[in-house]
């Protein structure tokens, strides 16, 4: 298996895999299973390529780790329980809170990692085109694409404005206070440029008859390979097996 195999899969196949991981984590009660899913996703990211693997790890460390720590501490100190296993000042932590913290963080880690990996190995334009192919109206597809691209677009615009402010002598690096002061002159141009960009997109779409009541055509085509036809059935069979196992046990 090589990175081309994973990257060339149809976007819906990748989405089915994401839903399969989420469903399996929710069905299987043990937090050990939830934590075991993460190394599997790391392997998939590594196979997809070094660049994707580094981006995947970077987002996990920046976004999920802090959330996981906060959730675990909240459950540890405030989840009701009777078996006290330690204390710190006025706080006590119980075995019940410890177990529930592990349970919740395992689910958050697995589900969050699955979605992050999906958007690392799937181009937004491919995902939106796949949604159109299964019946999503063009207006709905545009809304999905705009929503998914708004954060990266604003980040690019913020970097551009930041570089422009540097050329004008504004200090943008240093302590948190210096960065906070630098953010104020960046905020207004960022909002105004985002509004102008939205208007430009609307004019561009109308000039291409986006709202015309006719059937839309696209130059961007997606194709399915043999794996795209077999893998969803494999995911479904494993998922059904997990449900049966959960009911029986």
Give a structural overview.
The structure is a single chain. With 249 residues, this protein is mainly alpha-helical. The protein is 77% helix and 4% strand. The chain has helices at 3-7, 11-27, 31-48, 50-78, 95-121, 124-133, 138-167, 176-207, 226-248; strands at 84-88, 91-94. It has a two-stranded antiparallel sheet with strand order 1-2. A hairpin with a 2-residue loop joins strand 1 (84-88) and strand 2. Helix 4 (50-78) runs antiparallel to helix 5 (95-121). The longest helix is centred in the last third of the chain and has 32 residues, at 176-207. The two termini are 35 Å apart.
Our count of helices gives 9
User: Taking Cα atoms only, what radius of gyration do you get, to the nearest Å?
Assistant: 23 Å
Average of the residue pLDDT scores: 81
Globally, the shape reads flat
**Sheet bearing the most strands, described?**
2 strands, antiparallel
What's the helical proportion of residues?
over 70%
Structural class by sheet pairing and helices: mainly alpha
Distance between the termini: 35 Å
Strand order of the largest sheet: 1-2
H-E order:
HHHHEEHHHHH
User: Beta-strand percentage?
Assistant: under 5%
Number of strands: 2
Give the low-pLDDT segments.
Answer: none
Task: Provide a brief overview of the structure.
The protein is mostly helical.
List the helices and strands and how they pair.
Blueprint: H1 3-7, H2 11-27, H3 31-48, H4 50-78, E1 84-88, E2 91-94, H5 95-121, H6 124-133, H7 138-167, H8 176-207, H9 226-248
Antiparallel strand pairs: 1-2
Helix pairs in contact: 2-5, 2-9, 3-4, 3-5, 4-5, 6-7, 7-8
């Amino acid at each position: 298996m090589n990175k081309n195999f994973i990257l060339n899969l149809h976007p819906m196949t990748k989405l089915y895999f994401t839903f399969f991981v989420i469903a399996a984590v929710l069905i299987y009660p043990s937090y050990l299973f939830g934590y075991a899913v993460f190394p599997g996703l790391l392997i998939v990211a590594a196979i997809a390529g070094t660049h994707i693997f580094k981006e995947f790890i970077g987002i996990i460390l920046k976004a999920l780790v802090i959330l996981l720590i906060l959730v675990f501490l909240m459950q540890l100190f405030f989840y009701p329980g009777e078996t006290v296993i330690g204390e710190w000042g006025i706080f006590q932590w119980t075995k019940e809170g410890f177990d529930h913290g592990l349970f919740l963080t395992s689910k958050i880690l697995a589900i969050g990692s699955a979605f992050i990996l999906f958007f690392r190995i799937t181009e937004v334009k491919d995902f939106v085109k796949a949604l159109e192919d299964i019946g999503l109206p063009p207006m709905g597809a545009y809304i999905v694409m705009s929503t998914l691209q708004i954060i990266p677009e604003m980040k690019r615009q913020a970097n551009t404005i930041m570089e422009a402010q540097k050329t004008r002598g504004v200090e943008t690096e240093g302590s948190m206070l210096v960065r906070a002061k630098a953010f104020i002159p960046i905020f207004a141009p960022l909002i105004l440029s985002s509004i102008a960009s939205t208007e430009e997109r609307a004019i561009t779409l109308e000039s291409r008859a986006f709202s015309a009541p006719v059937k839309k055509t696209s130059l961007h085509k997606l194709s399915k390979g043999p794996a795209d036809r077999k893998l969803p059935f494999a995911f479904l069979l494993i998922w059904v097996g997990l449900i049966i196992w959960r009911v029986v046990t």
